[in-house]
Write a structure and sequence with these properties.
Distance between the termini: 54 Å
Radius of gyration: 21 Å
CATH topology of the largest domain: Spore Coat Polysaccharide Biosynthesis Protein SpsA, Chain A
Number of strands: 11
CATH class of the largest domain: Alpha Beta
CATH architecture of the largest domain: Alpha-Beta Complex
Strand content: 15-25%
Shape: elongated
């Protein structure tokens, strides 16, 4: 029994140290950055924005594309169908601002509906640097120059994880809890130690890197385009890099089913694409360290409830410190959202071992390269 208690204490201490280290690293990387001035001699950049449907705050996020402080960039909006309800909004933006094109069509190069939507934009892009950015990314004026400033000689792609902001309701708070102080934190830890992986929310490519792998169609080698991007970059001996001070994604109202379905889809894609990295996710939340703390305290004649409470305050206090340092969303509901998230993590991990999910109305199977049926 003493060996078991020792193991519990060692595990608890190790988990806490890793948790706090990830917080320190993420806080340093994600604190608000000074605005990067535009360089008149900067290379031309094509910004490709796939759009599908009317998301919360979509007009605001799309308008931000026209307000970039960059000397030479073009904007290509991509929509799969002319009947998409977002088309009239884009047409109004084009009338107001110009300096952009709307491309309509669906190139079926993969099972990934987003990639099929992006292909025409990639092919139409005139510049050697191409940004692919989801429609719900809120772009600051120095968005492009911050991405380019992150590029190094050994870089294959620059990405930015989504940071949830302006949540409306508790379930949107829960989505912030997943996106910000959990997923982004671990991504910045991985990136800092040289094991970064791509995130499809924002991707800056140098065209030649992807052309060497076979062009935009190479992203169809994996069901998720960011997983394929990671593997393509790794195969060329290059690095995925994350931009410091990542960009916000206004959430608005979220329902419980919507939030949970999205997390399940991402979990199944991670498990299918990187199974060895998926396995440790079961141990990343607070419940197991808290359980180990209680077990060790009970055998050391320490107050169990007090010990567990002290560790919980340290654990979630660290998350609060990270959110404060990075100026991410933080509210009285945040601790409850963090605790619920951690209670859900083991359930999410188990759900990740199944394969079927629905993405933008398409029923799909993780680990396969084609839909298994049409969504109803």
């Amino acid at each position: 029994m003493s060996t078991l208690i020792l193991l519990a204490a060692v595990y608890c201490a190790g988990a806490v140290l890793l948790h706090l280290a990830s917080i320190v690293i993420a806080a340093r990387r994600c604190r608000p950055a000074e605005r990067v001035a535009a360089d008149p001699g900067a290379p031309g950049v094509s910004v490709v924005r796939p759009v599908c449907g009317i998301d919360n705050h979509v007009e605001e996020t799309l308008r931000s594309t026209f307000r970039l402080d960059y000397p030479d960039y073009e904007v290509l909006f991509c929509v799969a169908s002319a009947r998409d309800p977002v088309v009239p909004l884009i047409e109004r933006l084009l009338a107001d601002f110009g300096r952009a094109r709307l491309l309509i069509g669906d190139d079926r190069v993969s099972a990934n509906p987003k990639l099929n939507n992006v292909v025409k934009g990639w092919r139409a892009a005139k510049h050697p640097w191409i940004v692919i950015a989801d429609s719900n990314v809120l772009m600051p004026p120095d968005y492009i120059q911050r991405l380019i400033a992150t590029w190094r000689r050994d870089t294959g792609i620059v990405c930015a994880p989504p940071i949830g902001c302006r949540p409306d309701g508790f379930w949107a708070e829960l989505e912030c809890a997943f996106l910000n102080t959990y997923q982004a934190r671990w991504q910045y830890l991985a990136d800092t130690v040289g094991a970064g992986f791509a995130q499809g929310k924002t991707m800056l490519w140098r065209r030649a890197v992807l052309q060497q792998a076979g062009g935009i169609e190479a992203l169809a080698l994996d069901l998720a385009e960011d997983a394929a991007a990671t593997k393509i970059v790794d195969a060329q001996g290059l690095r995925v890099r994350l931009v410091d001070a990542p960009f916000g994604q206004p959430l608005g109202y979220r329902g419980a089913v919507e939030v949970w379905s999205r997390q399940v889809r991402w979990a199944r894609l991670r498990r299918a694409s990187f199974p060895a990295c998926y396995l440790p996710e079961l141990f990343t939340g607070a419940p197991l360290p808290l359980l180990a703390c209680g077990l060790a305290a009970s055998q050391a004649d320490l107050p169990v409830a007090g010990s567990v409470l002290a560790l919980a305050m340290l654990w979630y206090g660290g998350e609060a410190a990270l959110a404060h340092a990075a100026r991410w969303h933080l509210s009285p509901l945040s601790p409850f959202a963090w605790m619920l998230r951690d209670l859900l993590l083991p359930v999410l991990w188990i759900k990740g071992w199944r394969t079927r999910f629905v993405w933008r109305g398409n029923a799909m199977r993780a680990g396969g390269l084609s839909p298994f049926s049409s969504a109803r």
